[in-house]
Amino acid sequence: MADKLIIVESPAKANTIKKFLGGSTKVVASMGHIRDLPKSKLGVDIENNFEPEYINIRGKGDLIKSLKKEAKDAKKVYLATDPDREGEAIAWHLSHILEIEKGKQLRVTFNEITKTAVQSAIKEPRDIDINLVDAQQARRVLDRIVGYKISPLLWKKVKKGLSAGRVQSVAVKLIVEREEEIEKFIPEEYWNIYVDLLEEKNNKVFQAKFYGKDGKKQEIHNKQQVDDILKQIDKAKYIIKEIKKSEKKRTPAPPFTTSTMQQEASRKLGFALKKTMSVAQGLYEGVSIKEKGTIGLITYMRTDSTRISEEARATAKEHIIKTYGEKYYENRYYKTNKDAQDAHEGIRPTYTDLEPEQIKDSLTKDQFKLYKLIYNRFMASQMSAAVYDTVSVTIKANDYDFRANGNTLKFKGFMTLYVEGTDEQKEDEEGTLPELKEKEEVKKQKIEPKQSFTEPPPRYTEASLVKALEEKGIGRPSTYSPTITTILERRYIEKEQKQLVPTELGKVVNKLLVENFTDIVNVEFTANIENRFDEIADGKQKWKDIIKDFYGPFSKTLEKVEKELEHVELVEEVSDVQCELCGKMMVYKYGRYGRFLACPGYPECKNAKPIIETIEEPCPKCGGKIQLRKTKKRKTYYICENNPASCDYISWNKPKKD
User: What is the distance, to the nearest Å, from the Cα of residue 504 to the centroid of all Cα atoms in its chain?
Assistant: First the structure.
């Protein structure tokens, strides 16, 4: 008989915790949730104040029997599931199944799986926080109602097997709207004029860019304007009019939140969100390190706070001063977003003395990459600013102004260790300028006008979509990864390179939702619901009141839409391909892997065929047409129309024009 039984979600977490506790303590895993709403029906009693109908998850019968036996044999049971709303709900369901009396202090949480954190938590158990449980129930029930009430409409009007989700639908809408912006975008012409100038004393050439006239900025929209300016300065002398020197500081980024970790791992490591969260989960739950055993390497990875404990701050200070010197350390505090739950710290290493290179051999390649990113980001967040000497020079050519900017890195500071990535590309990189003096003449070497066109907004990547969802208050740290994973799996969007592109199916589903369920895909409405979930967690609202407020208008909309769509058939898009079996013009349909051609005479004529896309470039081997196809995993490849009959050309890369 064990004195203490500790229940966690995963075996990896259980193995890590075991080593911190005495032999009379047993640690077992629930393998995630053990109770949930049934899959076969709505599972929410609308008539009985939205009471959820929870059932034991299929396939977990033996595990539940085992947990009951272990709990009965133990003197004390502790529920140590993850320290968030989902973890609180799992603990609540466990307490119900194990028939643990209400009010028993059995809930323990820790933000990091270290000996100190685990032992301290077990010494101070608390009651289950029913407010956190209710916030999770509200999300689960609301999402179930939306999904199970709208999905049948999609089955009838678009395709069987489709489903609608509250946060997922908003994410799809953002991607579709961005694609529409891109399609409607009309490029506008603009010009820049660059001049290479020689500083004769030091024989150094630098580049200046056209700014304007008489100190006022002037934009150039066409070649006529360029020619007019070039004519005016054809014989001009280039005189240094003004030199401004200053010192610029660049401060480090704060420690990671879930969102910023996902964005950086996408930019710098090329990780998909799902992969980032999976690798981070492993680092949090525990990794076997040579000569140290199994230890948790990072703090809890679902957080929207940048707050750091004083203990972590102290260890970072010691490590930075010891490694880099006193001038590289700066005690920094970061403001947490006003909407952040702030229940946990930011994501940081649990042991600052375990440098990434030191434990590289104990980690997988992916674990090492992500741990290094988290470690360096945290350490850099407590370091001094980088310092630049900057110079801005205005050069006169008759009445026209050119400008040149330069900077020199004087003190690297935190940049010794880490520099935050960005989704935007900087157009004009600044270098160093030669030593210049006011009123000095510099000699024109070359003048070069450059025509450009404005570009449409970029498509979302996983990283930039997460950023947009977070900025708009849609979803929370735990929802970003499953949201994007779900809409990819449902084929509402596709990845092209790293970009997220709506499929025809995604556009059709979005159109139906936008036209009929305005609130469901409304950004502000969805963000407001998230805020109300937060109020439930804070004990300021009752969860069933929020469901009631939502369901009244929603059910009326649903009833209205069902009537309106009853006799409406979505018009099928007719192709220019004739069915070779019956002569009818084939129509576009939607299947698991996207659009395909089908005969409208179904079921009498069951002819169907894939849509063959071709590109302009001919086959480099035989000159035939090149077809664009996709693998089952939606990766694009190029194949000759004559393959395999008379040509073997096939490639991942698009053939180039001669």
Answer: 23
Residue 640, pLDDT > 90, answer yes
Token pair for residue 580? 């070779």
At residue 593, the pLDDT reads 61
More confident: 193 or 604: 193
**Overall average pLDDT of the 449-458 stretch:** 96
Residue burial 327-336, b: 16+ Cβ < 10 Å; e: rest = ebbbebeeeb
- Residue appearing with tokens 């989704």: 423
Residues 6+ apart with CB under 8 A from 381: 252, 253, 254, 255, 308, 332, 334, 414
Q: What is the 3-state secondary structure (H, E, C) of 396-455?
A: EECCEEEEEEEEEEEECHHHHCCCCCCCCCCCCCCECCCCCCCCCEEEEEEEEEEEEECC
Which amino acid is residue 171, in one-letter code? Answer: A
pLDDT band for position 571 (cuts 50, 70, 90): low
- The span from the CA of 572 to the CA of 158, in Å, is 10
CB count within 10 Å of CB 178 equals: 22
Q: Is 284 left (phi over 0), alpha (psi -120 to 50) or beta?
A: alpha
Using alpha carbons, list the distances in angstroms from residue 77 to 15, 24, 69, 226, 243. 17, 12, 12, 79, 72
* Mean of pLDDT values over 623-637: 81
106-128 core/surface letters (b: 16 or more CB in 10 A; e: else): bbbbbbbbbeebbeebbeebeeb
The pLDDT of residue 644 is: 86
Residue 277: what are its φ and ψ, rounded to 5°? Answer: -70, -35
Identified catalytic residue from 54, 78, 284, 300:
300
The answer to whether 329 touches 305, Cβ cutoff 8 Å, is: no
What pLDDT score was predicted for residue 427?
44
Q: Which long-range contacts (CB under 8 A, 24 or more apart) does 494-500 make?
A: 494/634, 495/634, 496/636, 498/266, 498/270, 498/461, 498/462, 499/458, 499/459, 499/460, 499/461, 500/175, 500/459, 500/460, 500/461, 500/462, 500/465
Please confirm, yes or no, whether 593 is among the known catalytic residues: no
Q: Say what angle helices 130-157 and 523-537 make with each other, to 10 degrees.
A: 150
Run of H or E residues at 565: helix 543-565
* Bridge partner residues of 563 (DSSP): none
Q: Is the pLDDT of residue 631 over 80?
A: no
* Lowest mean per-residue pLDDT among 18-22, 396-400, 512-516, 559-563: 18-22
The answer to whether the Cα torsion of 351, 352, 357, 358 is positive or negative is: negative
Nearest-10 crossing angle of helices 365-381, 310-324: 90
